[in-house]
Amino acid sequence: MSLTTAHSVVAPSANSKRIAGAIIIAYALISIVPLLWIFATSFKTPPDSIAYPPKIVFQPSIEGYCNLFTTRTRQTPEYINSLGPATGFCDETVRKRNMVIAGPSNFLPRFVNSLIIAFGSTFCAVFLGTLSAYGFSRFKVPLADDLLFFILSTRFMPPIAVAIPIYLMYRELGLSDTALGMILLYTAVNVSLAVWLLKGFIDEIPREYEEAAMIDGYTRLQAFWRTVLPQATTGIAATAIFCLIFAWNEYAFAALLTSGTAQTAPPFIPTIIGEGGQDWPAVAAGTTIFLVPILVFTILLRKQLLRGITFGAVRK
Amino acid sequence: MLNRTADNVARATPEPLAKKIRGISDKGLAWLFISPTILLLLAINIFPLIWAIYLSFTNYRANRPNEVVKNLGFANYQRILGDQDIWIAMQTTAHFVFWTILLQTLIGFTLAWLIDRKFRGHAFWTTLILVPMMLSPAVVGNFWRFLYEPQIGLFSYVISFVSGIPPTSIQMLSNVSLAPWSIIIVDTWMWTPYVMLICLAGLRSIPEYIYEAAEVDRASNWRQFWSITLPMALPFIMLAVLFRGIENFKMFDMVNLLTGGGPGSTTEVASITLKRQAFESWRTGYSSAFAIILFVAVFGLANIYVKALNKVKQR
Fold first, then answer.
1. What are the helix (H) ranges across chain B?
2. Which end of chain A is less enclosed by CB atoms within 10 A, N or C?
3. Are A17 and A9 in contact (CB under 8 A)?
4. Tens digit of pLDDT for each residue in B233-249?
5. pLDDT at B148 > cutoff 90
6. pLDDT digits (tens, 9 = 90+) for A229-252
């Protein structure tokens, strides 16, 4: 019937492929430079990081990572000499700058907050989203289209506009600056994405599986549990990763509604300062640690990305 | 086949038994499954929204909770429409939205069009290009501040190296005329891949036989592009443009960390003004009214967006 691609009259010529490839590779390389630069900066010493001209070749150091995880105080050389031998690499590096480690920094607790809030809200959003998506997919729900639009529209609310009443509400309920408050909020934002994405995935699972299971004596609930859920695993996993990325990256709510105990990493990283301005190697180190999970997820998700960013509408 | 069997069995089963098999009725189960989500959204999104509407008619200030709250009627809305600062913020937002969308659509579509040539290794390079859009806008804004530093920043250094302008005079973030462009550059860097990915889906949705027919009719490449490629990819381009439009209209995190609205208020987009009014000046009633106005605008756009989504879905 139709021509095969090998002999197709419309296949791009070898030459046009080569030019297209060259332009795309050039764009990809240029667009990745800022990220490589941050990665490189995280292994520079503070003087190297602010050298002019910017240093491309440098002696790698983990001082940035040391500074990220510790707080330090300046001491006199006499005091430092009176201390015992340095314990560990960080201690040694810090002493060269006439400082001693005073204690751990807030980075680790903030990072842990990010983990708890991201995983907690993702679990809740995917749980609620799976149930709702199944409901919308399999049953005749009155006003289904309006409800689905209502669910999606909540995701488009400007975060600062929502934050004003949420701020007051959380103050009344004692949820300000708590992980529970943030988990509830992120669940509400993510559940809209979860419902829309999962509805697409569940729509693709043939109803016959459940019907067969129900003939075998399963109840609707058992059929959902034993046949639909196992079939939807890929979709649920992809949805969970999208929710996780949103919660992990979120800044506006976190900056306005948390200040201490429940603060996540995004509002914390910009506040890392050294002596005289931002401690760029430490900021870069924090940024690197924060971005690595996202890089891994992007690679895992690359086949589902399109679906995720269009709320399940475009499938490929 | 199986479907019909199921129907037959269902019809043959006596009603009470059928109920027992299903456990809960389908209608009950549907509501049981859907209501938790609806309740959560009512509690976390709709209830606060109603509260904000109420506050927008008052002079309430969140930093003085014990003061007597006065009802102002529509005074807050009237003041916003007459407020010079609000109009400047809306202009700044419009400038930002217009240029980011224009640049992202042009570059994004071109990239998609090139990737569609399916050169060797295109999948790998596409994934690499997609990385920036997955990152946290706040963290991105913060590290671009480093790249924009005069002299020591990589961006400033490369620009001065290429153009020969002395490195100390490239002040992307503190120069009044450059600062609006600094946020446009970062946003374009970050979100062009998003537009590209959706355009790519649009290009791939065009069936090959249309091009074959055009080839048979000896339509030129130029003609094919304007009469087939562009019109058929257009719904997808619109989808990307609408979504980026909504997102950039309410842009907050990246700009807040990159310039904080400065220098002065040259990059103060609507969300930054809202934050300053609500959480720095603590004019809660006034800022709620502004929030409601922004929300209505976004809601209108979202409505169009969902229609566009459904249109693309039918393809």
1. 2-12, 15-22, 26-41, 47-55, 75-82, 84-115, 122-134, 137-148, 154-163, 179-204, 208-216, 221-224, 230-249, 253-258, 270-279, 284-313
2. N
3. no
4. 988 998 899 899 999 99
5. yes
6. 999 999 999 999 999 999 999 999
**Looking at the DSSP assignment, which residues form a beta bridge with residue A71?**
A103
Under an 8 A CB cutoff, do A159 and B271 touch? Answer: yes
Query: Chain A, 224-243: which have a CB under 8 Å from a chain B CB?
Result: none
Angle at A54 between CA B186 and CA A283, to 5 degrees: 60
Q: What is the pLDDT of residues B188-203, one digit of tens each?
A: 999 999 999 999 999 9
- Chain A residues in contact with B246 by the CB 8 A cut-off are 156
Residue of B nearest to A127 (CA): B37
pLDDT of A7 strictly over 70? no
CB atoms within 10 A of CB A113: 22
Mean pLDDT of the A63-87 span: 86
The pLDDT confidence band at residue A1, using thresholds 50, 70 and 90, is: very low
Residues 187-206 of A with CB under 8 A from B: 187-188, 191-192, 195
CATH superfamily, domain A108-267+301-309, is MetI-like (1.10.3720.10)
The pLDDT of residue A57 is 87
Is A47 in CB contact (< 8 Å) with chain B? Answer: no
pLDDT tens track for A264-308: 999 999 888 877 778 899 999 999 999 999 889 888 888 888 888
Give the alpha-carbon dihedral of B147, B151, B156, B157, to 10 degrees. Answer: -100
Q: Please, are residues A178 and A262 in contact by the beta-carbon 8 Å criterion?
A: yes
Q: Which is more confident, A3 or B215?
A: B215
Instruction: Report the C-alpha gap between A110 and A274 in whole angstroms.
Output: 18
ipTM rounded to 2 decimals? 0.88
**Beta carbons within 10 angstroms of residue A315's beta carbon:** 14
- Cis bond leading into A267, ω under 30°? no
Query: Which of the four pLDDT bands, split at 50, 70 and 90, describes residue A6?
Result: very low
> Could you tell me which of A37, A30, A288, A68 has the C-alpha nearest to residue B144?
A37
Peptide bond into B36 cis (omega under 30): no
Question: Cβ neighbours of residue B216 under 8 Å, at least 6 residues apart?
Answer: none
> Which tens digit of pLDDT belongs to each residue from B172-190?
898 899 999 999 999 999 9
Residue with tokens 């208020």: B265
Q: A242 to chain B: nearest residue by CA? A: B134
Please answer yes or no on whether B33 and A160 come within 8 Å at the CB atom: no
Would an 8 Å CB–CB cutoff place B47 in contact with chain A? yes
Residue-wise pLDDT tens digits, B75-120: 899 999 998 989 999 999 999 999 999 999 999 999 999 999 888 8
Instruction: Name the minimum distance, in Å, from the CA of B199 to any CA of chain A.
Output: 10
At A135 the pLDDT is: 93
First to last CA, chain A: 24
Token readout for B168 is: 């100390």
Residues in B closer than 8 angstroms to A298, CB to CB, are 127, 130-131, 134
B:260-279 residues touching chain A, CB 8 A cutoff: 270-271, 274-275, 278-279
Q: Amino acid identity of B135?
A: L
Q: Give Cα B192 to chain centroid, integer Å.
A: 12
Q: Do B5 and A215 touch (CB under 8 A)?
A: yes
8 Å CB contact between B97 and B249: yes
